[in-house]
């Protein structure tokens, strides 16, 4: 009985073991089938990605193409058979961008990729019909079934390269415009830092980005006088607050350049869409000077018309007065007191006559009677007489072979007498009067009022008190004077008459001055045409 029970137990154990083996076999088969399904699905997924890729994908071994996707045939413009027969030789030009041979360069890059160093580079390809195109190429080594293959991914970047080249051309055009612009430009970011200055800006003011990296430093250097700087800053703030398409009027400021010279400059600010500002500037110093010249000429013309009429009428009246005084003196020459009074009245009439002569200088009929004269002798005589009883030292420097000029000697003497007299009055305690004379050749590029011809420049410089800047622009205005009015001082006509005389001689007069630094007057008179042409 026991033996039968044992047999039954062993049989049950054997059946159980068989069942376990059967179960294990069923599971492994299921897993294998599942794995096969997953593999098939994965292969389909990657095959879909492979075929749908927007780049050419090639699998090569040596020079042979093992496989490629549909995009490859589209990019190279051929069939698979044509590609496999002609690749790679037919699809690359002989030379690349850098002038290297395509064959040698490709061999080097393939070698590095197969050694495990992925390659990424731009390459010049040809389509099957010979049309060139630009591409980005990625080379990688892949292992399949224990063998090494080369995977090449080729992206057609022809359109992108064309866009980049067009953008580069536009940038070059913009750069050329910025670099060659006739006006200064500076680019300012939203923090007030200067990002770019064009050559004209640097040329105008002498500052570069190292000298003026931001607006704060620029303001201190360009406008060193504190109160004026505050006015400039307030004006800029007002402009920046204007939004939209509201018209912005150019701002005009006096800028101190790096070399200390002051320039009158028009500024205009443009707000950029992405923040920051573009500031443009134009030097109008010469234009302003020409405008002042025109304004002075217009003033003189206006007063000349009035002065001419007044002078003639006044002359007629004074002629009658002087005639009667002279007749009266001839009858009462024995009466000493009466004669003295009449003599003083006669002198006053003579002074009035001299004033009418000055007024006639403004009138239309006061054209100079020109003769050829030597200026150096006239200058020596005038200076010697003017400073004879003063503590003023003078230096006279006359260049060799100075051109003679064609001028009205009486009027030219009047100009030099006036200027030397003003210099003496500016140095009541003594000083130095320096006078120089030389030939110069000027043209419109140097001084706007000039024609291109030979001139004689006479410079008269004193070490006196100087003229304030706010008065310097008005010194040629008729009846404008810094001295007390009266017969012993000035009538405010001296420099206005000088200006008128020099202009009528087709010359130019310019004054440079600053307080406590003295005054320098430059007079340019045209050289006599006969002599200047023979030099």
Q: What this model shows, in words?
A:
The protein has 535 residues and is of the alpha+beta class. 47% of the residues lie in helices and 23% in strands. The protein is built from 15 helices and 17 strands. It has a five-stranded antiparallel beta sheet with strand order 2-1-5-4-3, sandwiched between helices. The chain has a five-stranded antiparallel beta sheet with strand order 7-6-10-9-8, sandwiched between helices.
Write the layout of secondary structure elements.
Elements (H helix, E strand, L loop, with lengths): L1 H51 L3 E6 L2 E5 L1 H7 L3 H7 L15 H13 L4 E8 L5 E13 L2 E10 L1 H23 L3 E5 L5 E4 L1 H7 L9 H8 L3 H16 L9 E6 L5 E10 L5 E7 L1 H47 L4 H27 L8 E3 L1 H12 L5 E7 L6 E3 L1 H17 L5 E12 L10 E9 L7 H4 L21 H11 L3 E6 L5 E8 L2 H4 L3
Parallel strand pairs: 12-14
Antiparallel strand pairs: 1-2, 1-5, 3-4, 4-5, 6-7, 6-10, 8-9, 9-10, 11-13, 14-15, 15-17, 16-17
Helix pairs in contact: 9-10, 11-12, 12-14
Short description:
With 535 residues, this protein is of the alpha+beta class.
- In spatial order, strands of the major sheet run 2-1-5-4-3
Please tell me what the overall shape is: rod-shaped
> What would you report as the Rg, rounded to the nearest angstrom?
48 Å
Backbone structural class:
alpha+beta
Low-confidence stretches: 444-448, 485-490, 530-535
> What percent of the residues sit in helical stretches (DSSP H or I)?
40-55%
Please report the total strand number as a whole number. Answer: 17
Largest sheet: 5 strands, antiparallel
Query: How many helical stretches?
Result: 15
Distance between the termini: 158 Å
Share in β-strands = 15-25%
The overall pLDDT average reads 77
């Amino acid at each position: 009985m026991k033996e039968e029970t044992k047999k039954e137990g062993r049989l049950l154990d054997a059946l159980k073991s068989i069942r376990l083996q059967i179960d294990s076999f069923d599971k492994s088969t299921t897993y294998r089938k599942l794995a096969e399904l997953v593999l098939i699905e994965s292969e389909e997924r990657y095959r879909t990605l492979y075929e749908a890729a927007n780049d050419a994908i090639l699998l090569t071994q040596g020079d042979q193409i093992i496989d490629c996707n549909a995009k490859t045939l589209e990019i190279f413009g051929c069939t698979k058979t044509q590609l496999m027969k002609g690749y790679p030789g037919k699809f690359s030009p002989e030379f690349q961008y850098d002038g290297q041979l395509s064959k040698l360069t490709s061999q080097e890059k393939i070698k590095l990729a197969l050694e495990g160093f992925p390659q990424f580079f731009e390459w010049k390809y040809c389509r099957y019909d010979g049309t060139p195109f630009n591409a980005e190429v990625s080379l990688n080594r892949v292992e399949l079934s224990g063998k090494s293959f080369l995977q090449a991914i080729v992206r057609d970047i022809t359109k992108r390269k064309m866009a980049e080249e067009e953008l580069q051309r536009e940038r070059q055009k913009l750069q050329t415009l910025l670099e060659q612009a006739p006006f200064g430009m500076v680019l300012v970011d939203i923090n007030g830092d200067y990002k770019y200055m064009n050559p004209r800006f640097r040329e105008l003011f002498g500052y570069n980005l190292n000298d003026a990296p931001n607006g704060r430093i620029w303001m201190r250097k360009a406008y060193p006088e504190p109160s004026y700087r505050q006015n400039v800053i307030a004006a800029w703030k007002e402009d920046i607050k204007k939004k939209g398409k509201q018209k912005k009027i150019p701002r005009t400021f006096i800028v101190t350049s790096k070399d200390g010279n002051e320039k009158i400059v028009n500024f205009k600010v443009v707000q950029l869409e992405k923040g920051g500002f573009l500031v443009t500037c134009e030097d109008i110093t010469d234009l302003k000077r020409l405008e002042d010249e025109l304004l002075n000429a217009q003033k003189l013309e206006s007063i000349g018309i009035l002065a001419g009429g007044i002078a003639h009428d006044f002359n007629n009246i004074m002629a009658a007065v002087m005639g009667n005084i002279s007749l009266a003196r001839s009858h009462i020459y024995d009466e000493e007191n009466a004669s003295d009074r009449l003599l003083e009245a006669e002198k006053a009439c003579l002074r009035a006559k001299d004033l009418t002569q000055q007024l006639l200088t403004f009138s239309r009929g006061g054209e100079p009677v020109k003769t050829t004269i030597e200026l150096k002798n006239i200058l020596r005589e005038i200076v010697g007489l003017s400073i004879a009883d003063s503590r003023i030292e003078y230096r006279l420097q006359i260049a060799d072979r100075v051109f003679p000029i064609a001028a009205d000697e009486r009027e030219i003497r009047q100009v030099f007498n006036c200027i030397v007299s003003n210099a003496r009055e500016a140095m009541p305690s003594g000083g130095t009067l320096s006078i120089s004379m030389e030939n110069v050749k000027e043209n419109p590029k140097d001084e706007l009022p000039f024609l291109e011809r030979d001139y004689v420049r006479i410079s008269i410089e004193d070490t006196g008190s100087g003229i304030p800047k706010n008065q310097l622009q008005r010194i040629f205005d008729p009846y404008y004077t810094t001295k007390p009015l009266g017969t012993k001082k000035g009538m405010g006509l001296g420099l206005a008459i000088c200006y008128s005389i020099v202009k009528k001689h087709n010359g130019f007069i310019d004054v440079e001055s600053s307080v406590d630094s003295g005054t320098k007057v430059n007079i340019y008179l045209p050289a006599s045409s006969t002599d200047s042409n023979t030099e």
